[in-house]
Amino acid sequence: MNILDTIIEHKKKEVAESRLKKTESDLRKSKYFNREVYSLSDSLLSPARNGIIAEFKRKSPSKGIINDHADVKEVTAAYAAVTSFTSA
Q1: pLDDT reported for residue 53
Q2: What is the helix (H) or strand (E) element at residue 3, kind and residue range?
Q3: Residue 48, C-beta contacts closer than 8 angstroms, at least 6 positions apart
Q4: Does 26 fall in a domain?
Q5: What mean pLDDT value characterizes the chain?
Q6: Domain span at residue 11?
Q7: What is the rounded CA–CA span in Å between residue 70 and residue 68?
Q8: pLDDT tens figures, 11-30
């Protein structure tokens, strides 16, 4: 069993336990259930909002080390320097 299999197995148990504590019906009764849905594309394209989604990581559970020499300040500064978003 690899790390992703372990994570999936744990998540399945966690979800099963959560379903025992709160039913779908309970969730539907929540004040948040019928709230307005936010549009990701509208948020990313809005000039009034920060449209950056970024993650800095040196390794991943499935791939192992990605780039252990990357400098967090340099990489995140490059993310922040990006000023436009192109929609596909």
Answers
A1: 66
A2: helix 3-21
A3: none
A4: yes
A5: 83
A6: 1-35
A7: 6
A8: 999 999 999 999 999 999 99
Q: What tokens were used for 2?
A: 């690899």
In this predicted structure, what is the pLDDT of residue 82? Answer: 67
Which helix (H) or strand (E) segment holds residue 79: the answer is: helix 72-81
Q: How many Cα atoms sit within 13 Å of 44 on the Cβ side?
A: 12
In a domain, 25, yes or no: yes
CA–CA dist 42, 49 (Å, integer): 9
Number of domains in the chain: 1
Whole-angstrom distance, CA of residue 35 vs CA of residue 15: 23
DSSP string over 16-64: HHHHHHS-HHHHHHSTTTTSPPPPHHHHHH-TTS--------SEETTTE
How large a percentage of the chain has pLDDT more than 70?
86
51 part of a folded domain: no
Q: Is residue 52 situated within a structural domain?
A: no
